[in-house]
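To the team - coenzyme A complex, inputs and output below.
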Amino acid sequence: MHILSLFRILIHILNNPKWKVAMSALKFSAEPKVRLTDDARAIDFDQLRALQSETTWAQDRTLFDLQRAVAASDLVITAWHGSTLVGCVRVLSDFVYRAVLCDVIVHPAYRRQGIGRMLVEEATSHPRLSRVQKFTLLTASARAFYERLGWKRYPGEGMVLERDQQ
Ligand SMILES: CC(C)(COP(=O)(O)OP(=O)(O)OC[C@H]1O[C@@H](n2cnc3c(N)ncnc32)[C@H](O)[C@@H]1OP(=O)(O)O)[C@@H](O)C(=O)NCCC(=O)NCCS
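Output:
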């Protein structure tokens, strides 16, 4: 058979709606099943340090300092794929007016799959933070990411998410 005819048959198959549905199901099932938890006792500090070493600002943190930072945080949410730590966010808050998000990190192999969005939205919608009016954070490199999530740019590295007042 001529190579062009083979190519046409292939295009025809790929354009078949049934095939497209099968492909999207395949894509969906290939996505990692990620579980979030706010139980800081679940944290594996060796994995957390490895995750943080993927950033420019937290690559030199010691295990001891990380343990202190987690212990002093008001909320820590981690994302897990099986037993692999694939993301985290720490929050410092007064639980009424303000909350500051720190160390939002997704494992490089798991980026662009919605995990960063899940982590940030899990933090800002967390029941313990339901009264908080304003969320803030500092980032130089991920401003566009937070904008996709509805945050506003502030001068310098600031980003702000303001809750609608009822
Ligand atoms: C920034 C970071 C947390 C994003 O995590 P992620 O899991 O890849 O993000 P998501 O897949 O949830 O993306 C959510 C949305 O933001 C967009 N997005 C993700 N990273 C982006 C980036 N660097 N620039 C612009 N948009 C970005 C996605 O396309 C997606 O848009 P959509 O929902 O409209 O399709 C991750 O890239 C990371 O860990 N970076 C290194 C650490 C860092 O810079 N942290 C932020 C400073 S605290």
